Amino acid sequence: MRHVLVTGGAGFIGSHFVKRIIQAEDVARVSVLDALTYAGHIENLGTACLSDKVRFVHGDVRDAAVVDALMADGINAVVHFAAESHVDRSYGAAGGFLSTNVLGTQVLVDAAHRHGVGKFVHVSTDEVYGPLTQGTASEEAALRPTVPYAVSKAAGDLVALGAHRTLGLPVCVTRSSNNYGPYQYPEKIIPLFVTRLLRGLPVTLHDRGQHVRNWLHVADNCAGIEAVLRDGRPGEVYNLGGGTDLSSKELTGYLLNLCGAAWDAVAYIPDRPANDLRYSIDWTKARDQLGYRPQHSLVDGLAETTEWYRRNPDRWAPLTTAALCTVLSSTCRLPAPLETPRGH
Ligand code: NAD
């Protein structure tokens, strides 16, 4: 595994993964391919950018010429994070999500096959299983995505797994629950609420705040993805869960406490269509086959994350106003001036 290509490495999870994988002794080189969309920030890579091991390429995963040239440069393994990742933005804008998350994946697997890449990890989400009223979804569960983001991710999973079946490309798929941690773009619920509450601004919850998500520290997801990269069996899917289940109201309670705010900062607004009530995955396969075990406690992880946003206002304050205006305009059912988050 000498030369690893990480797509979307300037985003939230991808940047954590790059910082992790460059420390591996058997990795001599890491190429990062990222289009630097609104969600991608080269600053997320920090000093990793200065490492002799790292090369940053500003490009689009849908650009077959760029991807082919990269793969031709001795790539042994690919970890594919690049995606349109925010559920709210996918409502009424499925085209862009399908384009990057499905066609982008197709371009990558085709090039990886042409150049004999030894391992291709496609990073996906528990949202592809759709909502569950009870029980947990194993890797064998049917895909029942509801929102356009999840539909595009499920289709990307099928493209990647299809490349294994039809071309023999050694593909693994990871499906993790909701990630949290430093460097997350402040449009998803945790960084959105923290950055608003730290400024004394109100936040909104849908309905009664009853929607349940499993919260996994980003470092635990990255550890699981590395385990899949190294030891995952080609053609297999691995669920990466084991975080903490919380309703959005329970999560809000933690965040209010950490930010020194009270419940009068919270407004309740009507629910949105297809706001999945609950996701839950069975991650025993990754535990038993790969030794995957999340290490971070929710209490410590949320405190660390809140502290990071408190200490780094220069990283998120310029982003919040302009970028969240875009979210608001694409979710015009919302009462201004409050943003409305979803679980992921
Ligand atoms: P993110 O939005 O923070 O980062 C996405 C990155 O991809 C950005 O750097 C962006 O510039 C880049 N990108 C977008 N379109 C591109 C394109 N066409 N070409 C090249 N680069 C492009 O996302 P994230 O939260 O870090 O998620 C990473 C991956 O993990 C995604 O595939 C997402 O579906 C998956 N995932 C995320 C979560 C979560 O809780 N955040 C949970 C499960 C799975």
The N- to C-terminal Cα distance equals 32 Å
- Uncertain regions spanning at least 5 consecutive residues: 322-344
* SS element count, helices: 11
Main beta sheet strand tally, sense and closure: 7 strands, parallel
Query: What would you give as the CATH superfamily of the largest domain?
Result: NAD(P)-binding Rossmann-like Domain
CATH class call of the largest domain:
Alpha Beta
**CATH fold label of the largest domain:** Rossmann fold
**Which whole number gives the mean pLDDT?**
92
Query: Share of helix among residues?
Result: 25-40%
Give the spatial strand order of the biggest sheet. 3-2-1-4-5-6-10
| Bound small molecules, deduplicated | nicotinamide-adenine-dinucleotide
Q: Using only CA atoms, what is the Rg?
A: 19 Å
Domain unit count: 2
Spell out the helices and strands N to C.
Answer: EHEEHEHHEHEEHEEHEEHEHHH
Kindly state the number of beta strands: 12
CATH architecture of the largest domain: 3-Layer(aba) Sandwich
